[in-house]
Amino acid sequence: MAVRRLVRLALLCAVLGATLRLEPTSATQCSLTSSSFAYSPATRGLAIFPRLPRTCCKDDDVASGRCLANRQTPGPGDLIDRVLAVVEGQVIMLSDVRAFLDLRLIEPPDATDPTQAVLTVLIERQLMLEEVARYMVAEPPPVEVDARLAELVARVGGPEAFEALLAIVGFAVDDLRHVLRDDLRIERYLAGRFPSARPPTEDEVAAYFREHAVEFRSGGVPQSFDAARDAARRRLSEVLRQELIDDWIARLTARGDVVRVTP
Description:
- The structure is a single chain.
- This protein has 263 residues and is an alpha+beta fold.
- It has nine helices and nine strands.
- Strands 1, 2, 5, 6 and 9 form a five-stranded antiparallel sheet that branches. The protein has a two-stranded antiparallel ribbon with strand order 3-4.
- A hairpin with a 2-residue loop joins strand 7 (217-218) and strand 8.
- Helix 3 (94-102) crosses helix 4 (114-134).
- It is globular.
């Protein structure tokens, strides 16, 4: 019941375009103009926020190194968090976009508006998770989650950097494990639903090789088509499979209950 009330609050925030901002109270204290709630990855809904974030980050700096380097103590009127979208009743917050970027759960997009680009990825991810839940995909074993977590820790620079990032984005390790577990469930679902695409024809493989010839080299020397045929076929097969997945995601998005919130 409590979770349901929080989700309803999220929907209300989305309709109103509500944001959470700091109001000045004293040199050492801050309060929120709205109730202190934040998105919890563990429940994919709103949860009571245990404490105010120690730092803030401007929207324009989300996908750049400045986001971490220039974080400062939040001041009066600084944006703390806001609802960006509601997907099938689940809330996606600005803090989710920041967390996925800061923790390198997603590659920073080469886009004019990185926030909206990452939001699109998170919307599609949530729609896929709805499908995963519908077909009751089995949970991955803990050892797979542990391995994925170890890869992430190494990717962000080791345990100390990892712990610092968790503090910045407001994640607990269990929150992150939940995200990684869901990623693995999506991968399992896609592997079962789209195990492969149709076999490409010889003409398609040859055309793919000609368009990507610079990518097929051995020891720095360009390969002939005969030498690169098998590699080109494998790459093209993966491209064709990804096209099937992209088309499926587009259909999910078209029929899904998705509300993007205008700032």
